[in-house]
Amino acid sequence: MNTPSIRQWCGAVVLAGLLGGLTVTASAQQSQVAGRVTAQATQEPLAGVQVTLGETMRGALTDQDGRYRIQNVAAGRVELRVRYIGYAISTRVLTVAAGETAVADFALSTSAVMLDEVVVTATGDHRAREVGNVVSHVAVAEVVETGPIANMNDLLVAKAPGVQVLPGNLTGAGARVRVRGTNSLSLNNEPIYVIDGIRMESSVGSSSIGIGGTNPSRVNDINPDEIESIEIVKGPSASTLYGTAAANGVIVIRTKRGRPGPARWTAYAEQGIIRDYNTYPTAYRGWRTGTTSSTNSTPTNGVQCILTQVASGACVQDSVSRYNLFEDPVASPNATGHRQQYGLQVSGGSEAAQYFLSGEWEDEVGYLKMPPFAVDTVLARRALSSEDDIPEEQLRPNARRRTSVRANVQAALSDRLDVSASSGFVSSTQRLPQTQNNVTGLLSNAYGGPGNRDNGRFGYRAFTPDESFSHTTTQNINRFIGSGTANWRPTSWLSARIGGGVDFTSREDSELCRRDECVNFATRKLGFKGNNRTTFANYTFDGSTTARFSVSSALASRTTAGVQYVHERFARNGAFAEDLTPGATTVSAGAIPSADETTTESITLGAYVEQTFSYRDRLFLTGAVRWDDHSAFGADFRAVRYPKLSLSYVISEERFFPRFGALNSLRLRAAYGASGNQPGSNDALRFFAPTSSSVDGVDSPALVFSAIGNNELKPERATEVELGFDASLFDNRLSLEFTYYNKVTKDALVSRIVAPSVGASTSRFENIGSVRNSGVEGLLTARIVDRRDFGWDLTINGSHNSNVLEDLGGVPPIISTTRQQREGFPLDGFWQRPYTYQDLDGDGIITRTEISVADSAVFVGYDVPRTEITLSTGFDLLNRRLRLSGLFDFKGGHHLLNGTERIRCQSRLNCRGLVDRTASLYEQARSVALRESGTTTQQGFMEKADFVRFRELSATLNLPDSWARAFGAGRVSFTAAGRNLWINTDYLGVDPESNFFSGSLGTVSDFQTEGPPSYWTFRLNVGF
Description:
The chain is mainly beta. 9% of the residues lie in helices and 49% in strands. The chain is globular.
């Protein structure tokens, strides 16, 4: 990296700001502007409306009564701009007399499109009309108060086109997020998160102890009730100035801020239940009578007669038994979960300083529970007197408890300087059960049972829940996120911003299996304890200077230059011991101890400059470039450069634009940009591994060459072209947003095999691949009816993505059992040998001779949805005191490997297609092709996974003001809501979102997993 030139350039930026500060003009006699903002349709006051002086950021927010006041306004003509989400912008020019107060009231009309809505960019806040790329906005404060939102995952599911979210299905589980497709074969495909201006730790699968698949995510540490809004910056065309690591998109979180006025208190309480209404597979068994123990079926052995044996005459089925332990109340691990949360918030302040304080306690216990037969087993085995004597973490193995507090303040120290500070602390503890892809876990045994209850384990395969749930896995989190920002306006044309902060997380992962309590597998019955301590520390600093001036009466210029420093550190120490003494629960009590230690660091240093020209406030041309150096780059690779160019044109404001009766506004936009995805922290480095060597018969420490590294390693580089338009129609009641994007990731990291003669690892990462994502996104928002007594609004968003691996850099196709990375096809696509079948003898049984399997694998389909469509609608009734809303979610164009049914047919031998003569020929054929074809194929278990889900339903009732006052409150509302209420799909597994994903790539697997549960929540909001 050319550090001297960057330092010199950064110094020039700071010097420009300091010199600008010397240009101070005398201020005229000061006045003020005040007024009230209401909704035109309802005449009700609007709180939180932004009122500013012209294009500056100087202004005020309206209070709960819709009133605002801007002080220290220079006398003369001033322009007021009023912006509020969901309403058309309103402007007014008035003359302010010296030393007096000018009054300006506004009645805002609703609008489905907001060209002047403020959006977040890397260089600060800008109006949407100035930005050449699309930015999706989620009004979190409203969504949380009136919807079934339990965590951060719920805020993103089906909320924005092009943003695909695969939620976790256990309490505390993380979600997999993809913005405009999958970009990398080898690196993280998750977006980065920025909260109040600083980079946030957001790792998925954030645990050092596995349970079989599902893991927590650090994103879910954040309390949704503390968030004001989320903006999703999609693709390199938008994320250029966020730099390396931003190629997968950026999710920008703004927490709540105070508003001028007296203290306003908000208290809320929520109660809810969690139920699993999914239909789980039934276990089948074909019984037969024989003359020996190896030929005679008994409830406790594995002898049975399957269909192909019936057809060949090898045995005769006496009967077929069916047993579904999930439907047996004595054996089922599924019960009713419960969630509760209580919170209190207060905000207020003067025109000069405002504050926001909040605190919340939340507790959620998942639906899994030790079933009655397992409880009885524990009581008898441990000689306990009642269920109360069994540890809670064993009875209810899935739970999460979180406490969060936040304090945000901002102050205008003068009319030229304002500062703000944000701080939040989270403390949580959660536990996850051993389940999913886990030999000793719950579902491996619940799905694999023998098709009868009397096998001595109530239908479970090898291990029962009393054993699996006795292995407890917990995670404790203590996390602080703090940031500060100062904005200085030394002159009317120059401003400077400086900010920084820290995200520090302390994570403790622990697992415990007391002696003689867990499964009798390997050495586990002897007991073990693991305790791993991890810290994440993210430090962010950025500063920028912006100069604004008018070239002419029609042409304006804005120039921003800045620097950014991001330092991420991960450190972990682990301790583990097995063979515990009876009653012991600590690592030190184990007879066989072990320990490990890991530390990684990542540093990014970037500098950027952005230039925008605006013509008559309707045509905006922006060019920018960012330079980055990174600690993960190879020693021989210099800093990377990311350019950006965008155009935004509100063409409908031109005089020559033809006027159509229905069309109110039309904006055309185009953007081009690049950003990166950084290699792993140590991928470029040479490594030596410690070992021991015998010297003269004595073990001595030694080193072996373990990784050759790559001095030329560089970031994956993604470039994107985005084209689109925004239109409003029918008196701004309907808006239409359309976007086309084409994103190419070059220098993609591919693991290439190196010659064994190098004497180290057999492969290393090289920048030789190329991946393309292209697609379209659309958003339609309509206010169909907008009257005081009745309102109806509708939102439809959709997207379609095409993904292709264009180049592997000469590396042969990367082939695994079910997936291939092959040029010309999508990443992680499903591949398998196809087969055909026909019941030639008409006996209703498919055999080996009636199946034909191809010699080679073919492409089956995408493993992620290509098309997503979401429809949400809301109705306002009873003079807008009652709001009903619902959300339907469609995902399609993809397949999912039904790994649960595959293993049930292949080795558990309890699937219907293997045993039951009434099974369809399709079910039989896929089982035979898998087990007996001679060329095993799983193609029959790669099922189309399209679905439509009734994702959300809510009803919010705002009590009359007189009723609220009777309780001493200003407002009272009650919300009843549900999530995951209904699904329509042809997928034969438990659910097309029944999944876990692992690793940074987040490849999906429906293998012995649970389905999404349903939530019903009831929330009371009280404002004082």
